[in-house]
Amino acid sequence: MPHTYQADRTDRCQSYQAGEFFKALPREAMAEFEALSKRQTYASREVLFEEKQNPSRIFVVLDGQVKLSMNSIDGRRLILRIAGPGELPGLTSVLSGREHEVTAEALHPCKIASMRRQDFLEFLLRYPAVYASVARDLSQDYTRACEQLRTVGLAPNAPVKLARLLLELCAAAHQTDHGVQFRLTLTHGEIGECIGASRETVTRTLSDFKNRHLLDFHGSTLMIRNQMELASYAEV
Amino acid sequence: MPHTYQADRTDRCQSYQAGEFFKALPREAMAEFEALSKRQTYASREVLFEEKQNPSRIFVVLDGQVKLSMNSIDGRRLILRIAGPGELPGLTSVLSGREHEVTAEALHPCKIASMRRQDFLEFLLRYPAVYASVARDLSQDYTRACEQLRTVGLAPNAPVKLARLLLELCAAAHQTDHGVQFRLTLTHGEIGECIGASRETVTRTLSDFKNRHLLDFHGSTLMIRNQMELASYAEV
DNA sequence: CGTTAAGTTGAAGTGAATCAAGTACCGTGG
DNA sequence: CCACGGTACTTGATTCACTTCAACTTAACG
Q1: pTM score above 0.85
Q2: Comparing A196 with A176, which gets the higher pLDDT?
């Protein structure tokens, strides 16, 4: 084997293991997964799979972000989540064989690994231990879907929905002296699509929060000044 | 063993196997599951577990129906689904150990089997084949949650939401010469809680559908006259 | 047969969508 | 360096679907 292969292999391992899924995998399972899968680069906005399609491949995000959403005929859209490195968008459908319930689309240029569905199912049969990872991933997906149902279906109004989304983002963010700070990579329109509100409502609600000193923003940087108050506000 | 035990045991097998979960289970796994679980009767409205609780037991509906819902402080409610015999409400949380995202409440008097969470997890380790059933159940829950997200979060208005719910109910209903007919066991209020609409809106929209000859109802019996048109209406 | 829960219908109020008309921002190329 | 075009954001005015409130009818059930 040429030297470059080793380097590449290490690189691949790291990419795969960015998420939880492959963490607990035995070495030989990991190697086999890599052997069976192929890597590909997806351009920004390129679609990995679409809702209503039958799942033909399993995908692993190695690098970049993938937007999972549901789309309606009239152009309305509901963003479910942004999947990052190590995640397996569409796992549910690949397992069940039912058509995809969501559309996956590269947000930025992405590195993606993928494998034929049948190969993955056979791989699963050879390594039943992987089921534990599968179950964890599925249950996480379900939990997230429930959280979003709570936001979209149970919140009494748009400000509460937005507050809930912001608090979710806080969890992955970085604490400073003046509050929790993070970059808002989504546009107002996309935020609206996460919570079922219009772009304008997002703008208005954000500036309302600013006026009430719950948060501050300059450009795409958002600072949650008073997370406690925001949280009590978001309570459903 | 007394004779009644045999009879009881047969009865129990049938109850467990009403759903998909236990269908594929090896005989000894089934027997062990029964030995470790206890049966209980729940009165109408009695709560099996509540959201935010930590999961301590796994539940199996043997007979009756269990309402799964999310509840907000101010009395608003979102009904996720009605679980019937053979289903395992709360499975996700039992597996992940995270707090319950939903509340489970007996609709009518119910027969329920339950088992200590720890016992179930150990049972799973002894019978990894059960993971296949677990994965199927989880993916089904996820799919359903997605469907509801589509209804609640993506439908443009209440009539479309209601039409989608009715079509869902049609799937489990019985075809006649004049259309699909089934009993609507939910009250208008509960229907509203399924789709995120008020009781009055449900009443009004149903009578609107009736006027447009999409459906008919007498008492709690509902007849979908024109399923095709209702479906095209519900398209999101 | 009376009491309670569910369904119905009308009227008024409201939160958020939509429409409209801007401004700020950013990368590109002259 | 600045004009340009495109995208995102902002803000106000209008509209509308649905909620809420209220009064009433009908059905369910011990």
Answers
A1: yes
A2: A196
